[in-house]
Amino acid sequence: MQQSTKIRRLVSLFSRLPGVGEKTAQRYVLHLLTSDPEVARDLGRELGGLHDELRPCARCGNIAEVVPTEEPTVCDICKDPRRDTRLLCVVGRIHDLLAIERTGAMRGRYFVLGRLLSPLEGIGPEELPVPRLVARIADEGVTEVIVATPPSVDGEATALLLKRELAATGVTMTRIASGVPHGGDLEYADPITMGRALSGRQSL
To answer: What start and end residues bound the annotated signal peptide (predicted)?
Structure first.
């Protein structure tokens, strides 16, 4: 079917999103084109300011809203005085942090590695922000680190690396318990399963 250049460009852009194929991208574009124009305008404004208004939290790596009067940029979780600063949960990705937060079982704070140890992908120990993690443990008086990397080959390798690298800090290290399927992503675990895995964590 002959399409306008504008539609082809939009379909191509939507297709770059994870899990979005060409047909789904085309449905998105046609829906926006035939629905209330304000929806497309609002979406465009929000997307246009995405990188200006959001950036990684300077402390944990979570997504944080930029406040012009505050420097550095810190997320709401790190700002929350009700959080237990002695308890730090280490996750591989922001998706995993959000999955744990949905359970309501985590009373401490987080540290996002941003990636997992993966020799096959060329990600070695030097690619992980372990020195920054060690510094945060010392600065905030952390007494327990929960390693919440996924139960996959890369997740287990990352957990073992953290166990070795953090041994000198003297913190208690625990690993989230079973309940999350092996080889699966924390992102797709339901809140009840994720909550049980967190509350049933074990010594690492």
So the answer is: none
